[in-house]
Amino acid sequence: MPDSPSLPLRVVLAAALLALLAACAERRGGSTAQAPVAPVAGNLMANASFEEDHPRFSPWTLNVHADPDAFSFEPDPQVFRSGGHSLRVRMVSEEPFASAVQYFDVGILPARRLTVRAWVRGEALERPVYMHTAFFAFGGQSGLVDTREQGLTGTFDWTRLEMTFEIPAHTDRIETGVTTTGAGTLWIDDVELVPAAP
Ligand SMILES: [Ca+2]
Prior knowledge:
Bound molecules: calcium ion
Order of helices and strands: HEEEEEEEEE
CATH superfamily of the largest domain: Galactose-binding domain-like
Largest sheet: 9 strands, antiparallel
Strand content: over 45%
Radius of gyration: 22 Å
Shape: globular
């Protein structure tokens, strides 16, 4: 059986070639005009640059006041601050607000004083976009802090919104992220939740 030793070798070579081609394809895909994603040490937000799991963006929760179709949430491959996408939020029909948030059990958080920040870009925003954090205890909302007073409106280039907050006693869960409250287009990228500076 003169052919028997060469068959496994052919298989091995074919597998190696496939692996090499796959690696090349991956490198090509990864280099298409992507801006660098700066790693943030200690960032508690996952999928913080909106590069993964389109169009669900898990573990983000995309909330709308009542009608889930009143706002659209889409990955935008044309407008982003880092990586190759941002999250674009657009009001489709009149509703008081939409938000992009993540939830955290207080028990797993490394500090009770935290800073949440996001880069946002706006086009014709009629009402403010701002950071907010809601506190929950025993399954119900027990408090809320936000930066509504300093919220951004109108048309603006990438701007950082930031808020530092202290988690009240008895809170067992928090919700934190960005809220928009009217017509226009909002882009969100590079969100961070980190222990506040001392
Ligand atoms: Ca991004």
